[in-house]
Amino acid sequence: MKSAILICALLAVVAVALPASAQTNTWDIYWLGNDKPENSAFAWDTGKVTMPSNQVTVGPANIGNPYPFARTVATGEVNVYDKDTGATQTFYRQRLNPDYEGGVTIETRIEGRYATSTSNLKVARIASKRGVVEVAWNIPQGQILITKGTAGGGNVILNYPAGVYHTFRLTEDSTGFKLWIDGELKKTGTVAAYSSEPADDRNEIGFGELGTFKVEYFVDYCYIELTGAYGPSDPGAPQLPSTYFVRGPVATIPSAANQAVITWVTSAPCNRRVYYRLKRTPAPPWSEYSEGGMNVNHSVTLNNLIGGLTYEYYVSCTDESGNTIESGIKEFTPNAEMHILPGISWGPRADSMGDGSMKFTWRATVKSDSYVYYREAGNSGSWTEVYDPTYIERWEDGNLSTLHVITIPGSAFTPGKTYEWYCRSVSEGSIWGEDSASGERFTYDFKFVDGPYAIASGTSCNIDFKTFFNTDGSTDAVTVKYRMLGSPTWNTVTQADTGMDHRVQLTGLTVPAQYEYQVICKTAVPGFSTLTSEVLNFETYQYPGGSVLTNGDFETGSLDPWVPFGANIGVAQDCP
Question: Cα 398 vs. chain centroid, distance in angstroms?
Fold first, then answer.
């Protein structure tokens, strides 16, 4: 089976300054020889040569018809070579881009040579036994020429940015050859096998201007020459290297908020997938972004991220042969919108609704689903989860926030038990989530949430209090018993209250005097009956001059002993 040899042309400057220092490495050097009678096979003669890392001396010339060439070795280094039938030649190699992952970027130059015509051009070769060759070159000028030669009918001139690295990939199969430049198919055709190397009938790639031969430049050509090398299934044929990441992946953060751009380059055309998630403990599930289409240059833009938080990501690619490669896990942090970080911005709080149900309320800075988890306090078992995907958007201090409310019916709770709980917000796509602080508790019981308080004013006194549940609305739903200290007889006031906020007014009191009182309430919530306070006291007052102290002598509100309920567990109230 035929194989392809990529014969690469390089535009080179005559004067080349070597680096000031050179590290000594040992490289594998291979020669292409004629070891079979049909003069159509590769000979893999291997020699170990120690040389400076910026210089390769190729030879010796006395090996039969030597064609020294480069091969990528296990370390990722690339040997640079030249064909010269007369003498040993010296080439210089530089690692121009240290971030070129999985291989190297090379530039070759020959010192002291120039081209005056096509008859004495030097040829640099890279050989493959599998019909696939790939290498990246820095383009010194702004043009790449693809031509069939003078006999082939002219040139194709492609404009590329000068000084930029480009990837060239050459494939050959039964349909002919294909030339890919930067992942795009640029030329196809068929090639005949030649016993010699005619200048006019080659498929060529040149760098620079074709036909421009100046003293300070020389031009070599890139062309395909079929040689009758090993086929993919022939004994002794080397394995084609697996697809690898040439560069990247690298995350670039645009100036716009909540975005990231992931770019990378593969050694062969692949599709592209990016997996990403917030960097949290425990880790949330991966989100996937995928695109079809085969290419070597890849760019994926991730939108609707949560700015200001760190993400983990990795990329996965599948080549034309079905082989999949994956990168390692890396990180990026997108810009935040209006400098507002995602999180729970207010709450949470748990409130009784009065009818036995419990309402859990909090705010978050992003649009997110709502979860409440609860269990009996002291129980190390699993949590009960209640989920609600709805939220209410509101503006808070000029920033959009979301209000989250979950109501759990009373049938979920056991009378008299204490429960621990927490809430969770999870943003759309599960890319962000946050739990409230643990340790929040409430006791599910018919009890006084606040009070009772006695506020005397002249000959009357108001008894104020709040209950955890609604009273039942019967004629004696709320009862206050009171009597003057030392009296054997209780006076009684009843009210048909139905809510949780209560005020009972006692009138006709003696001034000054001391009283004791007790509050009794009834509720319709299943599992409960009556609620009775302890016996409390209040006192009516009189000024030294004999006048009665009335409520008007207080600054209303400032000295009022009634303090509105503000604890975490209590009756339902409006959120701030």
Answer: 28
Burial of residue 204 (number of CB atoms within 10 Å: 0-12, 13-18, 19+) = buried
Pairing of strands 569-571, 344-352: parallel
Give whole-number Cα distances, 264 to 3, 29, 291, 325, in Å.
29, 31, 14, 13
Number of domains in the chain: 4
Q: How far is CA 247 from the centre of its chain?
A: 19
User: How far apart are the two ends of the chain, measured CA to CA in Å?
Assistant: 80
Query: Do both 406 and 434 map to the same domain?
Result: yes
Q: In terms of Cα–Cα distance, which of 517, 507, 514 is closest to 458?
A: 507
- Which of 337, 365, 399 represents a domain boundary (last residue)? 337
Domain membership of residue 557 as a residue range: 448-571
pLDDT tens for each residue of 314-348: 999 998 878 899 999 999 998 876 545 566 777 78
- pTM for the whole structure: 0.40
The DSSP code for 15 is -
Per residue in 463-498, pLDDT tens? 999 999 999 999 999 999 999 998 999 999 999 998
What backbone phi and psi angles, to 5 degrees, belong to 102? 85, -5
* Chain segment 107-125, per-residue pLDDT in tens: 222 222 222 233 222 223 3
CA 122/CA 107 separation, integer angstroms: 15
Q: List phi, psi (to 5°) of 224.
A: -95, 135
CA atoms within 13 A on the CB side of 53: 12
CA dihedral sign, ordered 38, 39, 43, 47: positive
From the centroid of its chain, how far is CA 486? 76
